[in-house]
């Protein structure tokens, strides 16, 4: 046992497949040498039952070495996959971190833009309210001006009717003055009464000194009024 531990090492120590094959080959060569010495000293009958068992053990050791070699190759493949997956995980984690940082930046930018839009909307609402108040004020002013215009138009129509009536009265008065013959001067002591003048239908408040026709409708002056 001590010789096997010296050859194969202690239990649990890792060995490469090539080293295991070399150890098995060396062990087989050493055992065959010892068997030859035993056969030369004591005859072949001494090792007749031991030789098949040694061959089986050596073959088992060789198969175990092959299995260890296959497991080592699979382990290397697993280690390579592990390293590859670990690198991919590190890259994905770094990309996720960058994406989270970018998302935070975009979220801050969107928040700032939303605040700016909110302030602009508030300003637009205030301006719209002020414009609506001005529009209502202008509408009230327009309505008041329309009322004043209507009242002035009515007053102007009344004044036009009054003016036309006064001009008509003036023309009638002037025509009556032109058609009225001048009366003879009475002699002293005569009892001839003065002829009756026609009654003039004029307003009571009519002032003849201020009543003048328009310049474009003035006619030739008639005879002077009798004293």
From TrEMBL:
GO terms for molecular function: JUN kinase binding; kinesin binding; MAP-kinase scaffold activity; signaling receptor complex adaptor activity. Pfam families: RH1. Residues 208-227 are annotated as: Disordered. It comes from the Eukaryota. The keyword Coiled coil applies. Keywords: Coiled coil. GO terms for cellular component: cytoplasm. Residues 7-95 form the RH1 domain. Residues 209-218 have a biased composition (Basic and acidic residues). Residues 61-176 form a coiled coil. This is RH1 domain-containing protein. It comes from Pelusios castaneus (West African mud turtle).
